[in-house]
Each structure stands twice: as C-alpha cells, then as structure tokens.
Automatic annotation (TrEMBL):
Residues 17-431 form the Major facilitator superfamily (MFS) profile domain. The chain crosses the membrane at residues 12-30, 83-102, 108-128, 140-161, 167-191, 238-259, 271-291, 303-326, 332-354, 366-392, 404-424. This is Nitrate/nitrite transporter. Its main location: membrane.
C-alpha cells in the first residue's frame, strides 16, 4: 500500500492520468447529451411522438444505470484503463450507428450501445482519482471530474445544436462518433492505472516496475459478496438515495425535455433556449467548485447541503409551474436554470458517503451502486413527462401546449418525495457507522 506521503500522489503525473481519464468522460457526456439538442429533429427524422422520443433517453439511461454495478466490479478487478478502452469502443459504435440510422429501431439499439459505453467512464475516472491522489482530496477530485465533464454539455448545447442545423444529422453525429478513436489512442498510449504500473516510457516519464494494485495477489471475494459488502454499508445506500434525489431534475431537462419545454412551452427561440441550457452547465461548474471545497473541509455539511438543493429546486419548479399566464418571465427561467446547476454537484456528495465507509478495493463497486441512483430517477422523470405530454396532446403529435408541459413537469415531485424520505431515514444509520469507523481507525 502506498503512503499518503508518496510524492507520486497528487503530482504532475497524477494530473496527467486524471486528465486523460476525464477527457474520455467529457466525450461520453457529449454523446449522452447530444439528443437533448436534437429531440425535435429526432422526432421529425423518425416520425415519432413524445413517448417514443422519451424511449431513446430512457433506454440509454436504463442501460447506464443497469451497468453501474457490473462496471464497478470490472473497475475493481481489471483496472480503469481497460474499462475506459472498452467504453470508448462502445461509445464510437453507438454514435456512428445513431448517425446513419433512418428508422426508429436501429436508432434505439444504437443509443443502448452508447449508454453501455457511457456507463464505463465516470466510475473509471473516480477510481483513477482514488489511486493517483491522497484520500483527503478525493471529494474535490470527484467534484472536479463532474465540473470538467459538464464541458461535454456545453459542447452539445453551444456547438452541436448549431452544427446540426448547418451540417445535418449524419455528418454531425458521425463526426462526434469518430472523435472516440482519437481519444482511444490517447488512453492506449499514455494512461496507466496507478503510479505503480509496469515500467514504460510514457508522457509521465519512466515508472517503477511493480505489480498493479488491482492484480495483486490474495483471495478475492466473490462478485456477490463484493456487492453485498458494499450494499450493507448504510453510507452506500444513503449515497444512492442522495444521488437519486438530487441529480434527476437537471438531467431530465438537459437530456431531452429542456429544449422542447423552453421552445414549445415558453415560446423561446432555439438560440435563447440553448443559452438557458448552457446556463445550467456554467452554474454547475461554479457549484462544483463550492461543493467540492465545502465537503473536503467540512464533511458535516453534506446532508444539510443536499436538503437545501433538493428543497430549493422543488420550490423554484413550484413557482414556475404555478405562475399565472401561459409563459413565465425570463428572470424566473434564469433563476430556475441557474439553480438547477446545483443538482449535479449535490449528487456527487452521495459518492463521498460511500467512499468513507468502503475500503479502496471495493470503491468501484460502491461508486457504481451510488451512481445508479440519479439515472434511475432520471428514467422515471423522462417517462413520466413523456407519458403526460402524450396523454394531453390531441392526435399524439408533437404540438405540446404550455399547459401540457406544466402538468407533465409536475411528475418531478414523485421521485423527489421518495428520495427525500429515504435520505431522512438512512441519515442517522450512516452517521453512526461513520462514527464507528472513525473510532476504530483512531484506536488502531
């Protein structure tokens, strides 16, 4: 085991390793959110309504959520480099398939493949951060990973949305798909799982020859035992529900329904709607820096911070949905979208609850369990919004009214209420377990 004083932890080589990993994550976010700016185009291209359009994002997110535990196990056993390479191959195949699809079924399969590749990125980058940086910096590195990942959202909202209408569907999605090959070469040539990886000339310099930590000897628990051990920790379960409750409002908005809501529901132009989506992402970056520093220095603020974000987001949506008149004022939309920028950083607090109660060799599995939460809630939100819109739209077309959008977005409160109840239930158990572990470490 390396000492926290190891000079290789947190140095230039660590930032290079993390930088390569987070580049993969940024590309995955570009692919994941590309449909968010192409929702109306996809409906026209494939001749589908709101429910079918929701199916794209729902299937993609379901695959992502379902893959989190298997990916966590793979990262723990094979190391993040191999998992990232596999993810890049799947991302490229999925995006290229989506680019050339002209009917609903092939496009749906392509998004499922893309979701599988996307699922392999974030947990892998978290594991790189845990191996290359001291433990005390892990909360900040997790927030920084989320912050940089939001650049992928910016690319989608500010670049892809414009390129799509100038270059066309196939050229836009094919070009983004082929970027995966360049990033794959970067990972294969330069990325190493740990500072102790086998000696080789890399951009980091020459590394010492030792066995990779994930291949070290010793008996390994079975896959079921690995999952059970992570799940038994109340901090892991609390982390899952924190992620579930905080992440989904912004995710559902950015992945699919934000652009239609702002354009058809609020009468904004495509450019202005894209700017509001970009505000969520820019706000996310600011909140990520704030939350990362707070959680690293004062772990006691984690649950209060989460509750403030959830209740604040719910209250602002309540004002928007109850506003008299067809359209809400621009200042309120600005406040809402800026506030939703806090959703992503708050969701990453869930990872810290899991990190503090699980050993390093189980961290990938625990992170995968937590990371499922927000995407399961996102699926519920995407499905609920699409279902209500279809029920309230005559003829099943895509001419959604402001009234239909308001009723549809009321479904956000269902997963929010469920998640809050679970957070309040698990908070005391998780706090007691953390206190027990701190006492054991102090005694040792």
């Amino acid at each position: 085991m390396r000492s926290a004083a190891d000079p290789r932890l947190g140095g230039r080589a660590a930032w290079c390793a993390w930088g390569i990993g987070v580049t993969v994550y940024v590309l995955a976010v570009v692919h994941r959110t590309s449909l968010g700016v192409a929702g109306l185009d996809a409906a026209a291209r494939f001749g589908i309504g709101a429910s079918a359009l929701s199916t794209f994002s729902i299937l993609q997110v379901l695959v992502y959520a379902g893959m989190q535990i298997p990916v966590g196990l793979l990262v723990d056993r094979l190391g993040p480099r191999r998992v990232l390479c596999t993810g890049l191959v799947l991302l490229t195949l999925g995006q290229l398939g989506f680019a050339f699809s002209t009917s609903f079924t092939p496009a749906l399969v392509s998004r499922a493949v893309l979701g599988c590749g996307d699922a392999m990125t974030f947990v892998s980058v978290l594991r790189l951060g845990a191996r290359w940086f001291p433990a005390r910096r892990n909360p900040f590195i997790a927030q920084l990973t989320g912050l940089v990942g939001t650049l992928g959202n910016l690319v989608s909202t500010m670049v892809l949305s414009q390129v799509l209408h100038s270059a066309g569907w196939t050229a836009t999605f094919a070009t983004t798909g082929l970027l995966g090959l360049a990033v794959l070469a970067l990972v294969l040539l330069f990325l190493r799982d740990t500072p102790d990886s086998a000696a080789r000339e890399t951009l980091f310099g020459r590394e010492p020859v030792t066995a990779p930590a994930h291949l070290a000897g010793g008996d390994r628990p079975s896959l079921r035992a690995q999952i059970s051990a992570a799940w038994e920790q109340p901090g892991t379960r609390l982390g899952l529900w924190v992620h579930f409750t905080t992440a989904f409002p912004a995710s559902a908005f950015l992945l699919l329904w934000g652009m239609p809501f702002l354009m058809d529901g609020q009468g904004l132009s495509r450019g202005l709607a894209g700017s509001l989506l970009s505000l969520i992402i820019v706000s996310n970056m600011g909140f990520a820096l704030l939350v990362g520093q707070l959680v690293s220095r004062r772990p006691g603020v984690r649950v209060p911070l989460v509750l403030i974000v959830v209740l604040g987001t719910g209250a602002l949506w309540g004002v928007v949905l109850c506003w008299p008149g067809a359209h809400v004022p621009m200042w309120l939309l600005l406040v809402l979208t800026a506030a939703m920028g806090s959703n992503g950083p708050a969701s990453l607090v869930g990872l810290d609850f899991a990190r503090t109660v699980n050993p390093p060799e189980r961290l990938g599995t625990a992170s995968g369990i937590v990371n499922m939460g927000g995407f399961i809630a996102t699926v519920l939100a995407l499905f609920g919004i699409g279902l209500v819109l279809d029920l309230l739209t005559p003829g099943g077309g895509a001419d959604y009214t402001p009234h239909a959008f308001r009723l549809a977005f009321c479904t956000l409160y269902l997963p929010m209420a469920l998640g809050l109840s679970q957070i309040l239930r698990l908070r005391p158990k998780a706090a007691r377990r953390e206190a027990e572990l701190r006492a054991l470490r102090a005694a040792a």
